[in-house]
Amino acid sequence: MDNVPFKGIIAYPVTPFDDNEVVDIPLFKKQVERLVAAGSHGIAPLGSTGVLPYLNDAEKEAIAEATMKQVSGRVPTLVGVSNLTTEKTIYHAQFSEKAGATAVMIIPMSYWKLTDDEIVRHYDAVASKISIPIMAYNNPATGGVDMSPTLLKRLLEIPNVTMIKESTGDIQRMHYLRKELGEEVAFFNGSNPLALAAFTAGAAGWCTAAPNLIPELNIALYEAIQVNNLEKARKLFYQQVDLLKFIVAKGLPRSIKAGLDILGIGGGGFKSPLGPLSDHDIATLETILASVKSEEYQYQ
Amino acid sequence: MDNVPFKGIIAYPVTPFDDNEVVDIPLFKKQVERLVAAGSHGIAPLGSTGVLPYLNDAEKEAIAEATMKQVSGRVPTLVGVSNLTTEKTIYHAQFSEKAGATAVMIIPMSYWKLTDDEIVRHYDAVASKISIPIMAYNNPATGGVDMSPTLLKRLLEIPNVTMIKESTGDIQRMHYLRKELGEEVAFFNGSNPLALAAFTAGAAGWCTAAPNLIPELNIALYEAIQVNNLEKARKLFYQQVDLLKFIVAKGLPRSIKAGLDILGIGGGGFKSPLGPLSDHDIATLETILASVKSEEYQYQ
Amino acid sequence: MDNVPFKGIIAYPVTPFDDNEVVDIPLFKKQVERLVAAGSHGIAPLGSTGVLPYLNDAEKEAIAEATMKQVSGRVPTLVGVSNLTTEKTIYHAQFSEKAGATAVMIIPMSYWKLTDDEIVRHYDAVASKISIPIMAYNNPATGGVDMSPTLLKRLLEIPNVTMIKESTGDIQRMHYLRKELGEEVAFFNGSNPLALAAFTAGAAGWCTAAPNLIPELNIALYEAIQVNNLEKARKLFYQQVDLLKFIVAKGLPRSIKAGLDILGIGGGGFKSPLGPLSDHDIATLETILASVKSEEYQYQ
Amino acid sequence: MDNVPFKGIIAYPVTPFDDNEVVDIPLFKKQVERLVAAGSHGIAPLGSTGVLPYLNDAEKEAIAEATMKQVSGRVPTLVGVSNLTTEKTIYHAQFSEKAGATAVMIIPMSYWKLTDDEIVRHYDAVASKISIPIMAYNNPATGGVDMSPTLLKRLLEIPNVTMIKESTGDIQRMHYLRKELGEEVAFFNGSNPLALAAFTAGAAGWCTAAPNLIPELNIALYEAIQVNNLEKARKLFYQQVDLLKFIVAKGLPRSIKAGLDILGIGGGGFKSPLGPLSDHDIATLETILASVKSEEYQYQ
């Protein structure tokens, strides 16, 4: 697994806005600092959690630079640069490399369904313009394209496409990837409720927004797997699964920001039309968070 | 049906690019002129067919202005202004109104699934900033949101949301709309292969890219329905259905541009990562076009 | 269209049971008489509506014989003989022919998904043992198999397979059948809410349980299509669509029996585990039936 | 977990037929003997693998009795008794109890979709007539009903419904069951390609036809989980996953019988319309079987 700078828990920060829907950089840095301090193994700004597609160029660049400054080399960084057009994807990938990103993540966003050849040309065009590694991201639910294992194989032939993030939520897909692509290919799980099954299947890491709320539990799950302790991993997973399912069901930006408010850290505001969690859902989240933290099993 | 400036065949032009992926305005105007001259009842630039989400602000504005100039009031115009953020949707809606658009079309684009309240606020915010009517567009396949009839009812309470375009491709959905929203609400069909069934169900119009290739057949189908001649409508529909299915299956921008090339009008190029139809598909399209035009039934 | 003894409204009776879950033949005959007297163009016992798969051999035979006796040649009869095994399908097809059935209907029931070759052999084996025509029935929702147009083409090469009943509820499927199989093939619609669209698309008939409750409206819709009066057909369809949707949503045996009780004819009881409609749903059905019958538009 | 007589690998025999489509009892006994001798923890005749719905009463009874005679109390037996009607389900459940079955398995087979109340009454009626425990089986793909966790909770309130077999193939469903129903409820996995993920999630056993072909690998996987050795379990799983996927994709009766032929044991014939695997698929299965058995990792 050459040129794979990630493993373990890759934490996704949100993008907070102030009351005028302007990005709140000081709050963002505070949130990132907390993710690093908690022991996350990587930081991934401008993902779906960070509402990348809703941001303009200036906002994207401010978030990328703030991440580099705050992380300051303590852990590797993975910056989302996906865009509908190849031209803009290249633009943001080059900006990220210059800003100091360890790697970039690219999902083939699609309004009109792309052919396999178009997707390969897209990755190839971007890859040829940067020298840092690329994580190819498959998430039909948000990206609109479902990349087949055959297509992923073709992408992995591009020298700096070295990692795959799989978010279909289908564990059999991961089994298939592992069998088809071989043990040496690094694949990462992007489906929170699949965390246990994906590590069991051999995932190298877990791309997740959950560390904003329960970093210790996320990291403990990974560590139990590392020491081959399935029973402990299972207990840790069942301790956190209700929260993982809630944040996915309600939308990551909404639920993570509400959770950060509950925890006293501050989640920040939204960019319209996205808005906050309903009062009813906030109350449910409070109950789940309290329950997760009070369960008898201790992860230390 | 107050404030409903459309009926019949609403034609969607493509957005042609030159070899440097720059919008080709002269070719665009030529294509629009042909749609008007053929008898289309309305012109709708910057739709899905016009690859709206792939264009930057300057490109969108150039296309909107070129449309107004070329159509020059001969038929009403419907300009697509959808955007992920409310702020940009308002910006483009206001620009279109100033440029002379008859109405704007808005689909609630969604990367993160919006709640019904968020969608209503989105339309309400845009509607309050313009005075021309709005067509609310439902297309889960491209927009990622499926607006329920209940939600559409709420949208129709906003004074200048006066039209609905439905593209789920489910005819039973149109029956439901008609029963729930009442006969007085104008709904438009956006699913090409559903053209006959939708007119049968009472659709006021058909939003379609097909007039770029077979305007006479599209218009003749509408006219047969208008004179209550089902048998003629059925024959006309079966004459064109293979083409309608082909352009949907292969993607409208790709297949319409290829068809315009075949017809000698010129379709123009693409913006990456979108590319042209494969040679094999072009050959199939040639066969279908030749067959459509040679069938014995004459639509005059 | 040789050897096609059906057109128009083919009415499906229920199978009523007494309190001991024994088939109530006198009530069944009364229900059949009413369907014939109301002007149905054909009678189809032992369909899904008649809970065929829940009956034992003696019950099936009693229902088939009672139908022949009551109909007495006034209209053609279409008897359901589908069974998981080829052996039993042949048995019931031969019994029906001897009892005087005009034709038999066969859906390739499937617990284990059958290959195309297995389905062709199944129809071929049955067809070779009887001399009356066969209607091949496609309904993935109840049968578990979705027969492709290619497969249907193969089935139509068997001499006495002469009719197709299509119940996928997808109007585009009917368009495809018509285009692929040619105008001379008789296809019948088995999806109630698709009645208008299917006749518009050229269906020869409508296989439906609705005549148990609203025979005049069903027949009037067919007649409006026959005289090429789309406007009248549309009005008649919207008058009955709520009822058509209700009976499908709640299950045909349950809702038709409840409707027959409301109309004072008597629907009869059920065979466990199937049971009656809930009180709440019965109240809804009463409201719909009253509304259907009171609407201003008169179908005479 | 009271009254739960199963754990580990519950092996499903096929039902072999001779050339006249008559059940081949001697071959069946030989196949069962092999499953017991190989170390299976339970034997489950008359499942989907055993083509239960295609058998008549006499065939079902012969298979049940032959199983009891051959197994002779060495391991517990689980007999499938599902039927569309409650009356016949009771009949077969009572027969199985008298024949000596340890427990019965019941899926709520459904042609017409059953309500939750109807399903509860169905299980309740059967449970009240027997004294051995019942495994409730959820498999929407073959049974046509998807029982919600809420419904499963209601079923578990019936005293002798003590086990759940889940075959939706969705690992998140198992997480939900475990969280909602509590650790004390015994749930069994019925989806072969989910074997590793289901054991990881805490499944008590694996209901599978695979031991007909690779019993040592199936048992070794279970044992690795028992000793908390995730790494070993993962290796064993990846060694067998291609076979597990193949037998599911091609249909269990077809592929298991072909595999038994390849292994020299003899799979027996089929009941029409079901037929054998194609020559091409048989060749693929030979390759997969050879590869599974030759892989370097040894499971002893």
Automatic annotation (TrEMBL), chains A, B, C, D:
Q: Which Gene3D superfamilies match?
A: Aldolase class I (3.20.20.70)
Q: Which SUPFAM superfamilies match?
A: Aldolase
This protein's record includes keyword tRNA-binding: no
Source organism, top-level taxon: Bacteria
| Any single Pfam family the record assigns to this protein | DHDPS
Keyword terms: Lyase
Keyword match ATP-binding:
no
Q: Which InterPro entries match?
A: Aldolase_TIM, DapA-like
What the record says about family reads: Belongs to the DapA family.
Report the protein name in the record.
Dihydrodipicolinate synthase family protein
